[in-house]
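Quiz preparation item.
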């Protein structure tokens, strides 16, 4: 009998922990969001494309850092180029996002290309890190200023 009580107790504690982690997720709230960032509203495909670009930028930052640690400037260039201006901004997305959001994104893509160019030209590790720090400030500024909102 004792093992059942312990087992039931473990299950109960586990359920309480799960509920505390989940909180009231999924519960509809009537009060407005405290998030004061500017909403960017994009329909599914556009939103997915911008989010994929952001994930690629984060992947590039990680790749650049790994390459700097290895002192491999060719790998720095390759990782940075993956988030450069190669594709440009989709014309449909350009029309739907706030101008400042668009400009910050374009500036960030250009900064990746500039970092790739400098790595190819023989930049030092310190220069790469300095440029990466400035570039990542764009990411922080964007995420601090904007949020994606659901299409009404």
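Solution:
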């Amino acid at each position: 009998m004792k093992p059942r009580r312990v087992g039931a107790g473990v299950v109960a504690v586990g359920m309480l922990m799960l509920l505390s982690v989940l909180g009231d997720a999924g519960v509809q709230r009537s009060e407005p969001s405290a998030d004061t960032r500017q909403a960017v509203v994009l329909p599914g495909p556009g939103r997915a494309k911008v989010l994929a670009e952001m994930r690629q930028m984060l992947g590039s930052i990680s790749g650049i850092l790994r390459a700097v640690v290895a002192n491999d400037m060719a790998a720095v260039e390759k990782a940075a180029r993956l988030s450069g201006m190669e594709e440009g901004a989709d014309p449909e997305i350009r029309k739907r996002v706030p101008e400042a959001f668009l400009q910050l994104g374009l500036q960030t893509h250009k900064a990746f290309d500039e970092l790739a160019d400098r790595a190819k030209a023989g930049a030092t590790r310190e220069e790469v890190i300095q440029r990466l720090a400035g570039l990542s400030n764009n990411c922080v500024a964007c995420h601090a200023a904007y949020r994606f909102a659901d299409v009404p």
